[in-house]
Amino acid sequence: MRFARQGRSVVAYLGNTPVGSIEVSPRGEILDINVEPAHQRKGIATALLAEARKYGTVVHSEVRTDDGEAWARSTGDELPPNELAEMLGPVEEWT
Fold first, then answer.
1. Is a pLDDT exceeding 60 seen at residue 65?
2. Residue 31 β-bridge partners
3. Quick one: pLDDT band at residue 93, thresholds 50, 70, 90?
4. Among residues 4, 66, 77, 82, which is most buried (max CB within 10 A)?
5. What is the pLDDT of the chain when averaged over all its residues?
6. What is the mean pLDDT of residues 61-90?
7. For 89, which DSSP code?
8. How many domains, in total, are found in the chain?
């Protein structure tokens, strides 16, 4: 896997195919992280986080989906309270 930095984003590639990306705010907060479904649960999101941290401090957002919450917890990082879950409850309950 290789990475390419594009502004405040990092894209992960397998060969020439982009398989995931992370976007970070000017304050270092994760704005978005995604991995193509066929490549999920293979450590790509965690590798993207590590790569993004080479360029500066990166912290987890206070607004996380259920999947985002599970992944954030798996990193072992200290997490801010999840304001989205506190306000709206689990995503499954939104529909």
1. yes
2. none
3. low
4. 82
5. 90
6. 84
7. -
8. 1
Q: Determine phi and psi for 48, rounding to 5 degrees.
A: -65, -40
- Which tokens is 68 given? 């985002």
What residue numbers bound the domain in which 48 lies?
A: 2-94
SS (H, E, C) 32-87: EEEECHHHCCCCHHHHHHHHHCCCCCCECCCCCCHHHHHHHHHCCCCCCCCHHHHH
CATH number at residue 70: 3.40.630.30
Q: How high is the pLDDT of residue 82? A: 85
- Locate 35 and state its tokens: 């991995």
DSSP, collapsed to helix, strand or coil, labels residue 22 as strand
